[in-house]
Amino acid sequence: MSYNCPKDNRVFMKLLEESGDMITIDQEVDWDMEMGAITRKVCEEQAPSPYFKKIKDYPGFESLGAPMATYRRLAIAMGMDADSSIPDIAAEYVKRTKEEPIDPVTIDKKDAPCKDNILLGDDANLFHLPGPMVHGGDGGRYLATWHFVVTKDPDTQDINWGMYRMMVFDEKTMVGPVLPFSDMGKMFHGKYAPKNEPMPFAAVLSADPMSSLASCAPSPIPEDKFTGQLMGEPVELVQCETCDLMVPATAEIIIEGEVIPGIQIEEAPFGEYTGYRTSPRDPRTVYRIKAITYRNNPIMMISNMGMPVDEGQLLRSFSLGLEMHKLLESQGIPITGVYMLPESTHHLVVVGVKRCYTGVATQIGNLIYGSKLSPWFHLTIVVDEDTDIYSKDAVIHALSTKCHPIKDIHKYENQPGTPLNPFASPAERKTSTGSKALFDCTFPLDWPTSDLPIRVSFDNVYPQEIQDKVNANWEKFGYK
Amino acid sequence: MAQKEYDTYVLTDLDAVPDERQNVEIIIRDLNPEDRRTKYRSFFAKANVSKDKSKYSDVLWIRLGRGQLQDEPWSIEVLEEVNKFA
């Protein structure tokens, strides 16, 4: 069953324009920091996406900034009403991803918009694309900020789509981090590099929104099938020019090439999702390109990572939290919901649970910190059903009042973690070592009922008839 | 010929870098290329580098590992570009 998601970037942009979630900028803007600065300000003010019609030095190219940096734009991308609530969007995601995965379909090259223009050999030059200088101080131009990299496991033939940043080094070379615990890292560092074999890749720049969402979701399902699950219909793929990898046919730009073993080149710094330039310039993984294909009048999307909220933070928080939801539910944990705050740069998750047995909070911590999801976050707050997990005020109140500073804070050491955490020591960054904490904000079950504190709030300490009377007269009193 | 400007990242303590280096291999970025589309193009170069900003004709701006731009530039003479993928 199709969920009417926009299957093409351009359909998505039309919907954004109709809902007032995109602004068209006709005046020329510079790829050298100006587009990045506008996009950054848009993220920090949660403003509509900027659609850049004219890019200095690059006639014929256009760009869209911050394509999915708000829940409104996420709802539109999912084929839902822009005003949908966060719990409704979350429930829809969970519902769809419990359905069967849907295999992609292959279409002919002549029907694939991403094959409108094909550059091979010397013509495949990265400086022919308007890669933005995203932030002042970046180590280079980052062509790939809202994109995913397609690779294939040489043993299982499993496909991986993942967002791995890529800095332009020269005409033919890009560089970026491929962390060893990532899916692509396991393929490249674990299988290709030990045999000194290059790994074919295709970087998909500016795909349809559900393919992009799938690529940054930590689902165990291969992303090409997961995209079909999210859309309720197959994603259309087309074969690359220089290898057997398949890419979404409506994507704006495709860069094909090989990840090269045996050499690393300096990459970064870069303004990262944590809101800092954390990881220093260091030798990182090298991509050499062989081909570039793109649509006519290509529209390059830019995500500008930094202080919240950008789409990386929002979508990663959204999907990480909901994959945790499914994991905990599958283990029979009596959760009432899971919400990861995008403002936490997907580091802090709130889990709501029914108070039904002692140790449920630590059981939750053990499960989610023991899962594949764990390197990307390190703070977990467990609250009971009295606390609205979507209300930051309510969560802060629960943390401040129900979490015993000695007994209810549990530490997890020597865990996998990303080197991008600003608090990580240089030694921890080198080994991707993390630390984690769990905050149990549920009152212990062994306390006598008579000892349980009573929450003093309008909805909890007045009889229903008094609440109804006050509510009925509220505007008459002069309140809005 | 117009003065060229480059920058490079120094990943060690600046004070530990010798004042004068001859024929060293470093990665530099071109900050004022003829074709503006190639600004920030990086390349490996064999070069002479001096902390004295007037020693060589071209300018070399210095950044630290997290992008911190230093106030005073050094100078550079690019001898040749090194192709690591030939």
Break the fold down into its secondary structure elements and pairings.
The complex is a heterodimer of chains A (480) and B (86).
Chain A: H1 9-18, E1 22-25, H2 34-45, E2 49-52, E3 62-65, H3 71-77, H4 86-96, E4 105-106, E5 117-120, E6 142-144, E7 147-152, E8 159-162, E9 166-170, E10 173-176, H5 183-192, E11 199-205, H6 209-216, H7 223-231, E12 236-239, E13 246-248, E14 253-267, E15 282-294, E16 299-302, H8 311-330, E17 335-340, E18 348-353, H9 360-369, E19 379-384, H10 392-402, E20 409-416, H11 426-431, E21 433-441, H12 464-473
Parallel strand pairs in A: 1-2, 3-16, 4-12, 18-19, 19-21
Antiparallel strand pairs in A: 2-3, 5-15, 6-9, 7-8, 7-11, 9-10, 10-15, 11-14, 12-13, 14-15, 17-18, 20-21
Chain B: E1 5-9, E2 20-30, E3 42-50, E4 58-63, E5 74-82
Parallel strand pairs in B: 1-4
Antiparallel strand pairs in B: 1-2, 2-3, 3-5, 4-5
Structure overview:
The complex is a heterodimer of chains A (480) and B (86). Chain A is of the alpha+beta class. Chain A folds into 2 domains: 9-302, Electron Transport, Fmn-binding Protein, Chain A (Pnp Oxidase, Chain A); 331-451, UbiD C-terminal domain-like, CATH 3.40.1670.10. Chain A contains 12 helices and 21 strands. Chain A has helices at 9-18, 34-45, 71-77, 86-96, 183-192, 209-216, 223-231, 311-330, 360-369, 392-402, 426-431, 464-473, and strands at 22-25, 49-52, 62-65, 105-106, 117-120, 142-144, 147-152, 159-162, 166-170, 173-176, 199-205, 236-239, 246-248, 253-267, 282-294, 299-302, 335-340, 348-353, 379-384, 409-416, 433-441. In chain A, strands 5, 6, 7, 8, 9, 10, 11, 14 and 15 form a 9-stranded antiparallel β-sheet that branches. Chain A has a 5-stranded mixed β-sheet with strand order 17-18-19-21-20. Chain A is globular. Chain A starts with 8 loop residues before the first helix and ends in a 7-residue tail after the last helix. The mean pLDDT of chain A is 96. Helix content of chain B is 0%, strand content 47%. Chain B has strands spanning 5-9, 20-30, 42-50, 58-63, 74-82. Chain B has 86 residues and is mainly beta. Chain B has one domain. A 5-stranded mixed β-barrel of chain B has the order 1-2-3-5-4. Chain B contains no helices and 5 strands. Classes of the chains: A alpha+beta (480), B mainly beta (86). Chains A and B meet through strand 9 and strand 14 of A and loops of B.
